[in-house]
Specification:
- By secondary structure, this protein is of the alpha+beta class.
- It has a domain of 111 residues: Helix Hairpins, CATH 1.10.287.370.
- Helix content is 65%, strand content 18%.
- β5 and β6 form a beta hairpin.
- α3 runs antiparallel to α4.
- It starts with a strand and ends with a helix.
- It holds the Pfam family Prefoldin.
């Protein structure tokens, strides 16, 4: 009897379910070994492709997380320093900074992506960045869980492929031995 790997998130429900086949001889009754192996190999390829895509998504999220945190830290510093003159280092490009004196800051410009920058009041910027940070962390946790689910599914499918292949090798060996015994 075959059992399936359980999924925990709604995203995982859309992913291919990997089957662990308990009883290979019963499962293979009336089935073509090559056809079953081809189907399992296709499922394995699909799982590995999804795994690769999920790894890329996780990497993008891990890149965004420190950027959002850095922007939030700066907004919080500006809120704490309201009414005071501050000297800050501005990053002009990677590894190149310039000092600037600022005072009475009421708004900031935030990059939203795709070449879009929007001006926000400090409190609005803080709320937006806190929301984005929480969303990014939640998405990262989901990506991590989905990746683990996909890796487990790929491993289960690999095991099923190996077990069916070994079953077929043993079946052919027994057929060959029984054929030789009958011809003696």
């Amino acid at each position: 009897m075959a059992s399936s790997v359980e999924s925990s998130s709604s995203a995982q429900q859309a992913m291919p379910v990997a089957e662990f086949i308990e009883d290979i001889p019963a499962f293979m009754t009336g089935k073509n070994v090559d056809k079953v192996l081809n189907e399992l190999n296709e499922k394995y390829k699909a799982l590995k492709l999804l795994e690769q895509q999920m790894m890329q998504r996780k990497a993008r999220l891990m890149t965004k997380l420190p950027e959002i945190q850095k922007a939030l830290d700066m907004v919080l510093k500006l809120i704490d320093g309201q009414g005071m003159e501050m000297t800050l280092d501005f990053e002009l490009c990677p590894s190149v900074y310039s000092k600037a004196k600022i005072s009475d800051v009421k708004s900031v410009n935030l990059w939203l992506g795709a070449g879009v920058m929007v001006e926000y009041e400090l409190e609005e910027a803080k709320e937006l960045l806190e929301t984005n940070l929480a969303t990014c962390k939640a998405n990262l946790n989901t990506a991590h869980a989905d990746l683990a689910f996909l890796q487990e599914g790929a491993t289960t499918t690999e095991v099923s492929i190996a077990r069916i292949y070994n079953y077929d090798v043993e079946r052919r060996r027994l057929l060959k031995e029984s054929g030789q015994a009958e011809s003696s």
